[in-house]
Design goal:
283 residues; alpha+beta; SH3 type barrels; Alpha-Beta Plaits; 3 domains; 5-stranded antiparallel beta sheet; 3-stranded antiparallel beta sheet; 8 strands; elongated
Length: 283
């Protein structure tokens, strides 16, 4: 009986020593990577993978020691399997979704996504959930609210995921400008096109982001240059300025556009914005 207790204590000391050693190695590895990676986004990604690798190693060392207990636990699970599966189905679904995220990569750390009416930038991905920095909806500017939301991994299997940063990497931004019938619409169009030429990205078919989208998702646009459309609706002449924009720069670009346009309108005697135009649809 006494020898068995000595052996048991030795096993626990062995596990404690292995755990401390692995913790030190993990710490040194993270410090080594941090010194050589300047971008915080890439460092966080490496940190996630390293944490799970070391967790797996620890499990491999602990399993032989606790195997008899594990066998008993498995026997109990086989008896009450259906009940356990029902109780922990969300946990299992979250675990499965974690590996789905790693393999399928619907998003990565740093991507801007929308899921289940939640909009934000991905901060972290863990076994059971992922975190995003909440953003206000695009129609309210799309900027940070300062709040962090923890979302169960299973949400990606139960809800559509919109990724603003991955598939096309550039988003089509549309700005609607309504003017009155008394306005000089041709002059307005010239002014809008001049402003678009200043603020829009010079994107062409050779851009790496465009080539990635074409290769991976067969997204193929023949025209990438800014375009202005005009129509008559609700008693107003309505211009739609359409151009490519970085997802995280949309509010800044809109601000630049309207500042330029309002200055030009103030300098003109023949352009008047339509005051009662109802513009509720924003993308």
């Amino acid at each position: 009986m006494f020898s068995f207790r000595i052996e048991e204590i030795s096993q626990y000391l062995y596990l404690l020593g292995i755990t401390i050693f692995l913790y030190i190695v993990r710490k040194l590895t993270l410090n080594f990577i941090k010194e050589r990676i300047s971008e915080n986004k890439n460092y966080r990604l490496y940190k996630i993978y390293i944490n799970y690798i070391f967790s797996l190693i620890i499990i491999l060392f602990y399993t032989p020691v606790f195997l008899p207990s594990i066998k008993e636990f498995i026997t109990i699970l086989s008896i009450f399997g259906a009940g356990v599966l029902l109780i922990f189905k969300e946990v299992f679904l979250n675990l499965y979704s974690f590996f789905y995220i790693l393999v399928r990569k619907p998003f990565s750390v740093g991507d801007r996504i929308e899921i289940h009416n939640l909009f934000g930038d991905v901060l972290d991905v863990r076994l059971l959930d992922f975190s995003i920095l909440q953003l206000y909806p695009l129609k309210y500017g799309g900027q940070s609210s300062g709040r962090i939301i923890h979302i169960p991994n299973s949400f990606i299997l139960l809800n559509p995921v919109i990724n603003f940063s991955k598939e096309f990497a550039l988003n089509w931004l549309e700005i609607i400008i309504p003017i009155t019938l008394k306005s000089d619409w041709k002059q307005t169009e010239i002014i809008i096109n001049e402003i678009l030429g200043k603020i829009s990205n010079n994107v062409n078919t050779s851009d790496p982001k465009i080539n990635f989208s074409k290769k991976e998702y067969n997204i193929n646009y023949t025209k990438l240059t800014p375009k202005t459309y005009v129509e008559f609706t609700q008693g107003a002449i309505v211009f739609t300025a359409r151009f490519l924009c970085e997802p995280k720069q949309q509010r800044i670009v809109k601000d630049m556009f309207w500042r330029e346009l309002l200055d030009k309108i103030n300098q003109s005697d023949h352009i008047y914005l339509h005051e009662s135009f109802d513009n509720r649809i924003q993308f």
